[in-house]
Amino acid sequence: MAAGGTRRVNATGNVLRCGVPGAAMGPTGERAVHMEYQTYYDLARKGAAFDEAGDQHAAIEVFIGLVNSDISDLDKANMCYNVAHCCDKLGQTEQALAWYAEGAAYEKPYCRIQLHEWQASYLAKLGRDAEALAIYESLYEQPYLLEIEKERIWGNIAILRNPRKT
């Protein structure tokens, strides 16, 4: 294992080293293949087209392929979101949550919070308010948040702590 990396296995059984740029490896430990920007863009659009056409399984295959490539960790996080979105459309709630967590892990070394917020929002949508609140409260404590992020997160915390009764 490279210095600074943490060995993890994602939902598809691929070994990942978190916090090490370009560290995705296939199931047998082989190094990911280099990808040019146009190839990345074309594949991302292809996955989106499959999703829009209702073929979430094909979209997931494309997006996971991108996660397992050598694109940036932050782009991998976005592809994890795409997989989570497709899993949700397929009714695979726990898989969707696992992919949100996967994406959040790619973002964390860069002090990014988008996937964590989307995960919390998804949990709230599912009625799992306590889990969503725990994520928002954890995020709110982070010293690297922008003031606008703190305000947005605090607003979500307030809503989850004091839901309106209809």
Tag the structure with descriptive keywords.
166 residues; two-stranded antiparallel sheet; globular; mainly alpha; disordered N terminus
Short description:
This protein is mainly alpha-helical.
Description:
- It is a single chain.
- Helix content is 60%, strand content 5%.
- The chain has seven helices and two strands; from the N terminus they run ββααααααα.
- With 166 residues, the protein is mainly α.
- Strands 1-2 form a two-stranded antiparallel sheet.
- It has a domain at 113-166.
- It has helices at residues 37-52, 56-67, 73-89, 93-107, 114-125, 129-140, 147-161; strands spanning 6-9, 15-18.
- The radius of gyration is 17 Å and the shape is globular.
Number of strands: 2
From the spread of the alpha carbons, the general shape counts as globular
In percent terms, what proportion of residues is strand? under 5%
Assembly status: single chain
Helical region count? 7
SSE order: EEHHHHHHH
- Unreliable stretches: 1-27
How much is the average pLDDT? 85
Structural class: mainly alpha
Please give the alpha-carbon distance between the first and last residues.
53 Å
Portion in helices = 55-70%
* Widest sheet, order of strands: 1-2
For the biggest sheet, the summary is: 2 strands, antiparallel
Radius of gyration: 17 Å
